[in-house]
Amino acid sequence: MNWGMKNRLSQLIQPDGHCFFLPIDHGYFQGPTTCLERPGETIKPLLPYCDALFVTRGILRAAVDPGNTKPVILRVSGGTSVIGKDLANEAITTSIEEIIRLNATAVGISIFVGSDYEHESLTNLGDLVNVCEDYSIPVMAVTAVGKELEKRNARYLALCCRIAAELGARVVKTYWCEDFDRITNGCPVPVVMAGGPKCETELEVFEFVYDGMQKGAVGVNLGRNVWQNPHPVAMARALRSVIHENYTAKEAYDLFNSLK
C-alpha cells in the first residue's frame, strides 16, 4: 500500500484501529429526511465526536463548512429515488476530477448483490476502484439491500462483503446481524456497521454496536440513530465511548442518560 493510500486510511481509521463515521447522505435517494432538512445545522454539534462525514457533493458544497469539518467520504453513486421503480439501479454520479477538487479522503458506493442490477452495481464498484486507485483514494463499498430488509442475515451479508473486498474495496460498510463474526471472518478488509432503520431504544443501539465491535467490526457508520435521537450529542458521545473507549453497552447507556 502506498503512502497516499495509507495516509487517507489513517485519517478515517484512528490509531486505535476504530472509527465512527457520520452519514448524512440520505437525501440522495429520499430527499429532505427528518432532522436532516438543514444538514449543516444538524452536524455542527456532532463533529467533535465523529471521525469522518459520509456526504454527497451537493450537501458538502452547500452545507458543510470547509474550515471546520472532518475527513470526507464522498457518496459517488446514485440515480434512483424512494419513489422510483428500483433503488438498485444506481450509477456512478461523480467524476474523479470532482472527487479530487473536493479533497475527499475516500469515496463510497452502493452494491446490490442478488438484485436485478447486481452486475451493474458490481461493475460500478470495479470501475470506481480502477480510477480511484490511480490517485490513492480508498473506496468504501456499501452492501445495500434496497427495500428488501429481510436479506439482512449473516450468510447474505458475508457474501456481499467478500465480493466487495474481492473487487478492490478498501473498506466495507454493512448491516449488523446475528453471527456478525461470520461476516468479519470472511472479509479481508475493515468492516464498519450501518445502522439501518432507527432503533426503538438507545440501549438497543449500544448493544448491537458493542456486539459488532466484539466480533470484528472496526467501527460504525451511523446516521439516523444519532441525529434523529432527541438528544443527538449525548448519543454521539456515548457511541464514541463504545467505539474508542471500550465501554460496554450498559456503560454507554448510563453515559447517555447522564448527558442527555
In CATH terms, the superfamily is Aldolase class I
Q: Which class best fits the helix and strand makeup?
A: alpha/beta
The helix count comes to 12
Proportion of β residues?
15-25%
| Sheet having the most strands | 8 strands, parallel, barrel
The overall pLDDT, averaged over residues, is 95
Annotated CATH topology: TIM Barrel
Describe the structure.
With 260 residues, this protein is an alpha/beta fold. It has one domain (3-259): TIM Barrel. It has 12 helices and 10 strands. The protein has helices at residues 3-12, 27-30, 39-43, 57-63, 96-101, 118-133, 154-166, 181-185, 202-214, 224-227, 232-245, 249-259, and strands at residues 19-23, 52-56, 72-75, 77-78, 91-92, 106-111, 139-143, 171-175, 191-194, 219-221. Strand 8 (171-175), helix 8 (181-185) and strand 9 (191-194) form a beta-alpha-beta unit. The chain is globular and about 45 Å long. It starts with a helix and ends with a helix. The mean pLDDT is 95.
What's the topology here?
Blueprint: H1 3-12, E1 19-23, H2 27-30, H3 39-43, E2 52-56, H4 57-63, E3 72-75, E4 77-78, E5 91-92, H5 96-101, E6 106-111, H6 118-133, E7 139-143, H7 154-166, E8 171-175, H8 181-185, E9 191-194, H9 202-214, E10 219-221, H10 224-227, H11 232-245, H12 249-259
Parallel strand pairs: 1-2, 1-10, 2-3, 3-6, 6-7, 7-8, 8-9, 9-10
Antiparallel strand pairs: 4-5
Helix pairs in contact: 9-11, 9-12, 11-12
